[in-house]
Amino acid sequence: MEENFLQAEPQTEVVMLISIGPVQEFIAQARKTRDLWFGSHLLSEISKEAARRLAEAHNARMIFPYIHKEKIAYGLDDLKVANKVLAIVPTNDPKAVALDVRRAVVTKWLGYANKAKEELGSGIIGPMWERQVKDFIEFYAVWSELESEEKYAEVLQQTEQLMAARKTLRDFRPNEPADLFGDDKSGLDSGRESVLKPSQYMSYAGFGIKHKETLDAISLVKRLSRFTVDKKEFKSVCDVAFQQFRDELGASRNQWMKTAVDEYYRDLKHKYGTALKLTGSDLQSYKSEMFYTSRVEEAVVELAAEMKKPINRVKQLEITQNILTSLEELYGKILKEPTPYYALVVGDGDRMGDALRKMKTPAEHQSFTEHLSGFASEVERIVFKDDIKGQMIYSGGDDLMALLPVHRCLAAAQEIRQAFTNTMTLALPDEDQRPTLSVGIAIVHMFEPLEDSLLIARAAEALAKVRRDELAIHFQKRSGSEEMRVSLPFSENPVNTIVKLQSLYRNRYISTSFAYGLRQLHAEYLDLKAHGSLQNEGMGELLYFEIRRLLLLKKPEFKSKDEIIKEVLSVFKGLEQTDSDRVKDPLVLLNRLAEQCVIAVTLEKVGGAYGTNDTNSTS
């Protein structure tokens, strides 16, 4: 039974702010997408436990997250919580409250850690595991007395300043040395040693641990979440990239290709079903790794380890070679391969601090955070929709991260942004300037390390936040031969423009050379302007006719001049209105249009609306 900290004597109220970590580095340290998801899920669950403890044991009025008392009785499974917890607590001993919440948080964390340890049994270095687990949680709590609700905004600001000051202080904990000098460092966190025993790697394969992979205790808690957390199968980057191929084969015109793919997979199950755990009875549930030549060998090792009687390494290599031969025959027949690229999407609210500082009362703040919780749920609904089929990593408040198929990422980003706009309209109906959402999209190869992919996505998000309310896209081929980085205002409907340009490219009205010709045109005119050879007046109309000339120069022979002008030039009409307040510099608009054209062509090549003929090689 939980302790009850309610006291008989008159109590003061305090605004208590709790921050739990580590955050970004903990989430980012991942090799598999489930590791990435579980990092954010774990922090959310731990923060949720802090909120639950405050509400139940200390009768706190929860601000962030906002929790109805009656909702606690029904469970908080669907609640999305960031790593910050804010509440008004009636107490004469706030330190005791904070320590009690900390105990609850640590207990919650140890529950996850102990389950992972039980799965691994004697396959870990025990003392090192205990040391790493014990030192993991970062817990900060600050509070300020709330004399009256009229002073809420002032007291909240003071409390946030206290938290900022507290985080500047370092905790110096006594160091417990490792067992041996020169212990292997974790491959995901070089600040911690690996707790895996070199002699036990055969037994690790069933947990998705590669041969000679070195992992610390915290990384193992994430890796083993598939066995310790009741959650359905989680999509890998391979699954997300493969979704475009699934969608394409689902089209009626491609029924013959689907038939060939079905025959290939049925043949795999018939030949190797006793050696490999090959699940899947239809196109939507096939093991995606079996369709990528670069992933087959690793998949065979993992799927063999999941069987009761694992096969030896020689047999695994034999099966791998046979599958690769069958896969080569399949692609030789259908002349189509799935894209190896997927989209990592991150988003963050703009000017959220300004909006929060305008909250005068706890009730206003509670209403606002309740709307944010609704937005988080809506983002999850969008990502998992049947016409998108992405994978949610996290969605808490105004912060989000998801994996999306390349051919659906733009539509999803636009829908998420619209959902945020709708949420802010409901949450702040009387405000003229409401928070907006900046979104960053990284188009990355499935072989790109997840940590690196996340850095690319974060860089795109930072680019979008320079001017705010923008969509930034960053694409770099795995070979490093081509890079694309651009940020576009949502107010100019960039997604609609890119989708239109994709259609034009797909139907061969525009070409790759036209897209890059636009880039070159912008560079030439930018140089002319820099040398004083060009004036803004009339430049928009001049550029419009330059584009018309370039378009006709690059047109395919089988398209008529009238067809090209009718279908394509409407996209560039805006250049003639660049004297408006919206865009004063026509070169700025030309640059945006050129980059959108390059984006459209690139997306089509790596898995656009209907797929690609590109191979899945790592180059």
Radius of gyration: 28 Å
Our count of helices gives: 22
And the CATH topology of the largest domain? Alpha-Beta Plaits
CATH class of the largest domain: Alpha Beta
How many beta-strand elements? Answer: 10
Keywords: Antiviral defense, Nucleotide-binding
GO molecular function: nucleotide binding
Protein name: GGDEF domain-containing protein
Characterization of the model:
InterPro entries: Cas10-Cmr2_palm2, Cmr2_N, CRISPR-assoc_Cmr2_N, CRISPR-assoc_prot_Cmr2, GGDEF_dom, Rev_trsase/Diguanyl_cyclase. With 619 residues, this protein is an alpha+beta fold. The protein has helices spanning 24-28, 33-58, 69-74, 94-120, 126-134, 152-166, 201-204, 217-223, 225-228, 237-249, 255-272, 296-305, 313-334, 352-357, 362-384, 409-427, 450-467, 494-506, 512-530, 539-553, 561-568, 586-607; strands at residues 13-21, 61-64, 84-90, 138-146, 341-350, 391-396, 399-405, 436-445, 470-476, 483-489. The radius of gyration is 28 Å and the shape is flat. Helix 4 (94-120) packs across helix 8, helix 11 runs antiparallel to helix 13 and helix 19 packs antiparallel against helix 22.
Question: What does this entry show, briefly?
Answer:
This protein has helices spanning 24-28, 33-58, 69-74, 94-120, 126-134, 152-166, 201-204, 217-223, 225-228, 237-249, 255-272, 296-305, 313-334, 352-357, 362-384, 409-427, 450-467, 494-506, 512-530, 539-553, 561-568, 586-607, and strands spanning 13-21, 61-64, 84-90, 138-146, 341-350, 391-396, 399-405, 436-445, 470-476, 483-489. With 619 residues, it is of the alpha+beta class.
